[in-house]
Amino acid sequence: MAIAAETPELLRSDLDHLGVTLHDGGGTIRVWSAHADAVELIVFDDVDLDWIIESVALEDIGHGVWSASTPLLRPGTPYALRVSGHSGHGNTFNSGTLLLDPYARSVLSHRDGYRSVVVDTGFDWGGVEKPRVPLDRTVIYEGHVRGLTKRHPRIPPALHGTYAGLAHPAMIEHLRSIGVTSIELLPVHAFASEERLVRHGLVNYWGYNTVGFFAPHAAYASEAARREGPDAVLREFKGMVRLLHEAGLEVILDVVFNHTAEEGIGGPRSSLRGIDNRSYYRQTDEGVYIDVTGCGNSLDTSTDAAARLVLDSLRYWAREVQVDGFRFDLATTLGRDEHNHFTPEHPLLRAIIDDPDLADVKKIVEPWDVGMGGWQTGRFGDGWLEWNDRYRDRVRNFWLSDIDYARRAGIAPDGIGGFAHRLAGSANTFGAQRGPLASVNFVTAHDGFTLRDLVSYDVKHNMGNGEQNRDGADTNRSFNHGVEGPTDDGVILANRRKAMRNLLGTLLLSAGVPMVTAGDEFGRSQRGNNNAYCHDSGLTWLSWDHAPWQEDLLEHVRRLTRVRSENPALRPIRFARLGEHTPSASVMEWYDEHGETMSIDKWNSPAHRTLQYVAASTPEFEEANRILLVVHGRETPIDITLPDLPGALFVTLWSSADERPTTDAVPLRPGEVVAMSPTSMRLFRVDMDPDAVIPDEDGAWVDPTAAGPASDTIGEA
């Protein structure tokens, strides 16, 4: 069943319409299993999920598809599957096990497993369309449905932690106020807690343990919707999407197709393992699982049915539920062929890019897994956005671990060149053709330290996870600034606040697509836990009771997203090319602290960590724009001389040295000296001085805001 790279076999028609299709007189169910001997539909009473009211045999109609039609399949009907076949050679059939339909639109938990439920998917969208936010204007906000609203004081308690709560006006007001455009939700597909966590009295809070790829997680619906039934749960989810769309906000789903909640052999047999284990999971000829996810199993997308399951799920959420994008967890797994090697031309990856139903959605990958050859950042190709871990690591190094090292050794380990690469869009990772918008820039994510903990802890503190602090990353590139964790030391606290401003400033002023982690905008802490996946508690829920310094940080985020929106030079669509005019690019010039062109020696010297970066837009759809960003990465103050840009007027837009953003700075001119605080940034808009007279060599007038030649002088990554 391996997919031929040149033929999209996963699109063949016999794989169409799997799951339940409703029609006059009931419904038809279609299930795929290449190795089964028999498949049964088990129909339960609407109220008593133990009471079987009918068993219907499915007919083998060829190509591995089993089908039956019955009037019993109607909205609200609970059902399951029983599948029998020859066990061995990688299969684990058991005709006594009740199994989920992989295409079920609703999943109910029950004491002996799960029940699929037929759902009426009708919904009135009221003419509301997707916002379709352009990539260059996209600011992603990664959050958890439950954690975002569980403690929000302005959201009614009945809606705390729910889909409806996320769409409440109070939450929408916050999202719009901080300038984000697209909310990326941690998994909302129906999921379960691993058996190990349950034994320890913990839960899988993040949700990276999928049970059903088509069903919304029912526990995130309001109690009223859950009481009303699966139809109401789906309506609440769609209602959330509609209200967010009305507010101009996109909804991106973090999707986990790399593995399922069935864990390793011996784990739960709830769906795919009992339907066709050999075809759905990667394994050796002897039936030993090939686990490239670290979760016990790996979905085998080299088989047509498994790949089609992924594609059909994406189509459903994009078309029927109107979501705006997907972030693919451990996406390298999806691109592994029948030999377990990653290829960007994998038929599933190509089908996702080429599918017209997915043409208008954002497709974001986490470009790695834990298998051999798992790290693939930069290799996914056109149409994909990639989490840029190189960006994360370099930015953390520059502002945190390098500063820590310099305190102890007297000099930082690296200069500013590699940092400048990331600031300018990571061309050395994604290449000229893909451009800066291939990079999803992030400094923190759900997995790892929060922003506040990144500047407050040198090491992880995960004892509460029940694994003796063995879980979670050991290399965090963090810096506690002198004391581990909480402190009353005013100097340390001030340095931590400025470090957070530097990290956020870098993130929101870099070329690429920025992603902010929920709560970082006001300095949320998880008390040093960098792997809080198993805590559904105050440790992970956002607190909306803020100290004054947190309100100040929030104002910085608002200022940064606004200046990003207002200055197209900060958000180029393409990379500029030396000696060419490239529309919607930013021509970049690099200066040292003296206002002179950066030399190669200064790019790479650890002793030199000060940079003036000029970016000038090449207009295509917006007015011409030019900015100057000054970066100073040492713990000593420095005076810088503004570069000699003819006719320029430098208007201060933002400074990380300010505890709270200010607006009263006097415009400056080329050659003026500016005092930079230790480890700080300052952003200027470069306007045309109305008093400047700038003749060129021939006496003709020139536009002082016009971009100069693109610079190809930049340090190593």
Automatic annotation (TrEMBL):
It holds the Pfam family CBM_48. Keywords: Glycosidase, Hydrolase. CDD domains: AmyAc_Glg_debranch (cd11326), E_set_GDE_Isoamylase_N (cd02856). Residues 463-482, 695-717 are annotated as: Disordered. Belongs to the glycosyl hydrolase 13 family. NCBIfam families: glgX_debranch. This is Glycogen debranching protein GlgX. The gene is glgX.
